[in-house]
Design goal:
The chain is of the alpha/beta class. The chain folds into two domains: about 1-75 and about 100-180 and about 270-350, FAD/NAD(P)-binding domain (3-Layer(bba) Sandwich); about 180-270 and about 355-390, D-Amino Acid Oxidase, Chain A, domain 2 (2-Layer Sandwich), CATH 3.30.9.10. The protein contains 13 helices and 21 strands. Helix 1 runs parallel beside helix 6 (about 105-120). The chain starts with a strand and ends in a 6-residue tail after the last helix. Bound molecules: 8-demethyl-8-dimethylamino-flavin-adenine-dinucleotide and P-hydroxybenzoic acid. 8-demethyl-8-dimethylamino-flavin-adenine-dinucleotide binds next to helix 1, strand 3 and helix 10.
Amino acid sequence: MSTQRTQVAIIGAGPAGLLLGQLLHRAGIDNVILERQTGDYVLGRIRAGVLEQTTCDLLDEAGVGERMHAEGMVHGGFELCFGGARHRIDMHGLTGGKHVTVYGQTEVTRDLMAARAAAGLPTIYGAKDVAPHGFDTDHPTVSYTLDGVVHTVACDFIAGCDGYHGVSRASVPPKALSIYEKVYQFGWLGVLADTPPVAHELIYSNHERGFALCSMRSTTRTRYYVQCPLHDKVEQWSDAAFWDELRRRLDPAAAEALVTGPSIEKSIAPLRSFVAEPMRFGTLFLAGDSAHIVPPTGAKGLNLAAADVRFLSRAFIEFYAEKSRAGIDHYSEKCLRRVWKAERFSWWFTGLMHKFPETGAIGQKLQRAELDYLVGSRAASTAMAENYVGLPFEA
Ligand code: RFL
Ligand code: PHB
C-alpha cells in the first residue's frame, strides 16, 4: 500500500483525460492519470475522425497541434447523397469561413501521449480496480491496484474521463443521477483500408438499403461505414461483402470511383444517445463519454469531450490561480447546454440519414422531403453547417 499526492487525479487516458492532463500541466497544475488498459490498446481503438475548429484550437493551446496542422486535412464542405445524386453543403461559405479538420482520434491520442511522456508526467497504465472515494469531501482519493499492490492517490479533485463504461459515473449514487437514453436498433460497420478516398470530402449517404458514410484519414487511408443490423457480427462481413454493400449505397459516379482493398480494421459500433446529469458531484467531475454519448453521425463525440475539457481545465486553473469556485460551480450547467445541442443535432442527423423500417413508406417520403428542403434552402443548409462545424462557445 502506497499513498501519493497530486492536485487532480484523472481516471482514463482517452482523449479527454490526456488533453485535460496536458492543459493542467501547462498551467502548472499537478496531475496523475490512471488508465485501465495499456497505451497500445488505447491507440488500437479506431474512432472519430473530424475535429471542429474549437477542438483544433484547444489542441494548439495544449501544445500538441503541430502534426495535426501538418497532416490533418482541412475540409470546407461535405456531401449529402440521396436519390442517386450528391449535394454539397458548403460549410465554409455558409458559416462565414469556418471549416473542420479531418485528423483521426488515434493520432490526437498519439500526439497527447507523446507530449505527456516528453514532459515526464505520470500515467499509470494497466491500473486495475480504480475507484474514486470521498468525493463528497474536499479530500477525495482514488485507489487502484497495480501488480497486485493497492495504491492510493490523494487529491483535491477527481476528473472522471473514463468513458461510457467507466467507474466514475458508476460510483455516483444512482439517486443523484438523471439518465436520458435512446438506443438505436442498428449499428455502424466500419472498415479502415489503405486505399485512396473515393472523393475529396466526406459523403453521407441516405439509401433505401441503409446509411453509408465515406470518410478518410489521409490521401491514402480511408474510413468507411455502412448501417448494419445491431446484432450482426464482424465475422459475418467479409471485405468483399462490405465493399459490395458500400458501393450499392453510393451514387453511380462514386460507386464507379470507389477503390477497394483489404481491410486493416473492421468493427461494429452500436448507436446511442445518452446524457447523465449533472456532470459534477462534489469534487468528482465527469468529462467526455463518461457523461454523454452521441450517435456518430454528426461527428460530435470527440469534440464534445474536448469542449468539456476546455470548461474543466479553465475551472481548475481559475480555482488554483484565483481561489475562485465560479468555474467549478458552473461546470455542469455550462457543459450540459452545449451537450444537449450536440445531442439534438446528432439525433436529428441520424434520423435524417438512416433507414428506419418501422416508420414505413411515409417515413421514407418525409425523410426525402426534408433532404430536398435541406439542400434547396440556404437557411436550412446554414443551420446544418453551423452545427456541423461546431457551435461557438458562449461568452
Ligand atoms: P474514451 O475514449 O472512451 O476513453 C476513456 C478511457 O478510460 C479508460 N477507462 C478506465 N480507466 C481506468 N479505470 C477504469 N475503470 C476505466 N474504465 C475505462 C478506457 O480504457 C479509455 O482509455 O472516452 P473520452 O476520452 O471521453 O473520449 C471520447 C471519444 O472517444 C468518443 O466520444 C468518440 O470516439 C465517440 N466515437 C466516435 N465519435 C465521433 O465523433 N466519430 C466516430 O466515428 C466515432 N466512432 C466512437 C466511435 C465511440 C465508440 N465507442 C465508445 C465504443 C466508435 C466507437 C466504437
Ligand atoms: C470518421 O472518419 O470516423 C467519421 C467521420 C464523420 C462521422 C463519423 C465518423 O460523422
